[in-house]
Amino acid sequence: LAGLAATVAGLTITQAQQGPFGVQDPAWAHDGKHIAVSYLDRIWIMTPDGRQPKAITTGEGTIEREPAWSADGSKVAFAADRGKGFDIFVVNLKNGAPNGAPIAVTTTEGDERWPSWTNDGRIVFAHRNAPAAGHNGDASLQFDLFLTRPAAAPDTWEPAIALTETNEIGRAHV
């Protein structure tokens, strides 16, 4: 993947520079013809050999992570922080390339991360509320699972429903 990183950005990155700037979060399309990765805080789609890279967004100042392909390969969901916490976005694809602007699936306070598609086109993701000021709890224990699905109107999603609820000591209830 180191060669892939150089191909994507056209940059020479030394070993000391790789740290958080390297390729991460690889996700294979179900047909095996494309891979989505997070690189330099953006989601890229490319062929498995790292050729034909295409950024799925053009936004600056955004951190994009955790791409996930829909079962039919027509969409990629991902988590993006545009300055107010991570939300889930979906971009439509045509022939492995972005087709339109990303659609916000969530816009709630806190963080939504790790989207995963069901076979029928719904998205399961993890959500946590914004930590209260002075809260010393382990933030990883505060994530709950939510589910959403496309609404009847094009490019809109239904409000997410909670699948689990974590109490203050970190125990999830289903």
Describe the model.
By secondary structure, this protein is mainly beta. Residues 1-20 have low confidence and may be disordered. The protein has 2 helices and 15 strands. The strands form 4 sheets. Strands 5, 6, 7, 8 and 9 form a 5-stranded antiparallel β-sheet that branches. A 4-stranded antiparallel β-sheet has the order 1-2-3-4, with no helix packed on it. It has helices spanning 2-9, 15-18; strands spanning 24-28, 35-39, 42-46, 54-55, 63-69, 75-81, 86-94, 97-98, 103-104, 111-117, 123-128, 144-148, 161-162, 165-166, 172-173.
Chain-wise SSE layout:
Blueprint: H1 2-9, H2 15-18, E1 24-28, E2 35-39, E3 42-46, E4 54-55, E5 63-69, E6 75-81, E7 86-94, E8 97-98, E9 103-104, E10 111-117, E11 123-128, E12 144-148, E13 161-162, E14 165-166, E15 172-173
Antiparallel strand pairs: 1-2, 2-3, 3-4, 5-6, 6-7, 7-8, 7-9, 10-11, 11-12, 12-13, 14-15
